[in-house]
Design goal:
There is one protein chain. This protein is α/β, with parallel strands linked by helices and 284 residues long. The protein contains nine helices and 13 strands. It has helices at residues 55-65, 88-91, 101-110, 128-131, 147-159, 162-167, 191-204, 223-232, 245-254, and strands at 4-13, 16-25, 28-36, 43-50, 75-79, 94-99, 115-116, 171-177, 182-188, 213-217, 236-239, 257-263, 266-271. The relative contact order is 0.15.
Length: 284
């Protein structure tokens, strides 16, 4: 399914009306169904609105953030419905996730038969205590980075946002190394979806936790973005816009360095500033 749709629009330019073609980011539902490797009925876990593409990563990342998947081996299979009677368009918007027994039991306790909007995130989480259990310590990764390195990251992300360049309507999440190399980028109409796709890609490759990485998001840093980063072990989250108050509280508790308003060679550090060097020389 193409993530971009072409439409005709009536544009007003310099007082004149011009009919032209425009590109829009596609927004479609993705129904995530769960099944047990031991058999039994398949049921809906959640339906989320997303931009098509990298759906398997989105499902894996979302289930990981929700606590259904704890390790790669919890996920036994990811596939479209196999029933030949199902309409092909419907199949493109459904994923069946087969889980190990323990993961399936966790999913059964968490299942939400609702639609998540593309700005929603982890709607079922209502408190920091639910996200960070008492037996999970805050992140303690000790790497440091210079302000100069931080300044460069939004532009490096923007240069790789191919769908945004076509539509102007997609968010991006980029995973950088501690040296500033862009390792993964995903785009989606929802910030949290883009983050899920990045984390899901790494989960599927068995690369979690991501203890020496930096997550940069193109919009605001809400609670759900910090929650997903904490779950994946990402110690630094940077946003070009503002964080929310609950995002700051979660970052502070979880040991996540949270940077906001990262643009125009400035930024604010809202939590755990020790990972950002002071008065460091400029990088060349």
């Amino acid at each position: 399914m193409d993530p971009v749709e072409r439409v005709r629009v009536l544009a007003r330019e310099e007082g004149a009306e011009v009919e032209r073609e425009d590109a829009l980011a596609v927004e479609e539902p993705l129904e995530i169904r769960i099944a047990s490797e031991e058999g039994g009925p398949v049921s809906t876990f959640v339906t989320t609105m997303r931009t098509p593409g990298n759906d398997e990563e989105l499902a894996a990342g979302l289930l990981f953030a929700e606590g259904v998947l704890e390790i790669r081996s919890d996920l036994r299979a990811l596939e479209r419905p196999s029933d030949p009677r199902i309409d092909p368009e419907l199949k493109a918007n459904v994923l069946v996730v087969t889980l190990g027994a323990a993961a399936f039991d966790r999913a059964a306790r968490l299942r939400r038969g609702t639609v998540m909007g593309s700005a929603c995130g982890v709607c079922g989480k209502t408190s920091i205590e639910n996200v960070i259990p008492s037996d999970r310590p805050p992140l303690t990764c000790r790497f440091t980075m210079t302000p100069e390195l931080l300044y460069e990251l939004p532009q490096r992300l923007r240069e790789r946002q191919s769908l945004f360049a076509r539509t102007g309507g997609l968010h991006a999440a980029g995973l950088f190394s501690s040296e500033g190399a862009l390792q993964e980028i995903r785009e989606d109409i929802g910030r949290h979806n883009a983050t899920d796709k990045v984390v899901g890609a790494c989960l599927l490759r068995g690369e979690l936790p991501l203890s020496d990485r930096i997550l940069v998001v193109s919009g605001r840093a809400g609670f759900e973005i910090v929650q997903k980063a904490f779950a994946a072990g990402i110690p630094v989250v940077a946003s070009v816009s503002a964080p929310s108050s609950l995002a700051v509280a979660l970052a502070d508790t979880g040991g996540v360095t949270l940077v906001g308003f990262l643009r125009d060679r400035r930024f604010n550090v809202y939590a755990n500033a020790e990972r950002i060097a002071k008065n460091a020389p400029s990088r060349t």
